[in-house]
Amino acid sequence: MKAILLAGGSGTRLAPMTAVVTKQLLPIYDKPMIYYPLSTLLLAGLREILIISTPHDLPMIEKLLGSGADLGVSFSYAAQPKPEGIAQSLIIAEKFLNGQPCCLILGDNIFYGPHNGIEQAASLTKGSFVFAYRVKDPERYGVVTLDAAGNATSIEEKPAQPKSPYAVTGLYFYDSEAPAIARSLKPSPRGELEITDVNRAYMQRGELKVGILGRGTAWLDTGTPDALLDAAQFVQTIERRQGMKIACIEEIAFRKGFITAAQLEKLAERYGKNDYGAYLRSVLEE
Ligand code: DAU
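Above: inputs. Below: predicted complex with DAU.
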């Protein structure tokens, strides 16, 4: 399975923080936001990743992440000229996907907790799979209802009266049909190709499965300055307590066996004597 990391958008809700840099490059405690969704993909064992962003931000993201070779993975890059919807990423990625199933993750989605269900979803070949998470304010998200077997029974984008407390997270798994479905969509009243419409198309075929991320998992919001600070403090609390990092992509690449100890040592050298470099060396000494 191939993966798409969508990291564009206008970022207007966080201006002026996002006046010159995309939201996904803002820090969440000790690393750029984009490291977190990237770590979710790497932990799921996905190594061929297309990163999509605005023409303005793409060169900066490419400078940050490079080809992926030093992490034992492959990053490709594509521009989304205008933020015309999350589903448009499936059309932009069509050539890259080359008829394979895909995982799409939004660049501002931070997951923390057991990843078992996600790894399993990454082996999907037919239909689609999304993850839902119970939230206090479902009206801000895509909202899904499901039956006892985990089949979606309704899905709505930002409904005024949500039918359930379950928000659809920004982590989607699709079979090879997804780009064709995205191409068949009409823009919504807000002028976007909606990912919820892709999911509804799968639901209407009886092919939208939903996994609930339980209460032991954190799906953090990054939509407001307060949410950003909360997310940073959440990461800080756990990292300080355990002395282990969340979403350290170099560590994940090493523990997953994508790179050798010698390669990790080389990556650590990049950071000299700073805390991040010291942490990578401590992983090697374990
Ligand atoms: O985070 C999960 C939610 O993401 C889902 O529950 C919703 O169903 C889904 O529509 C989406 O909600 P938002 O409308 O809040 O998404 P937003 O416009 O904030 O964009 C999410 C990310 O995708 C953000 O990092 C920017 C990026 N993006 C968005 C659009 C519309 C792009 O790169 N290009 C785009 O055209």
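Residues 6-9, 23-24, 80, 83-86, 88, 106-109, 141-142, 157, 167-170, 192, 195-196 surround DAU (CB under 6 Å).
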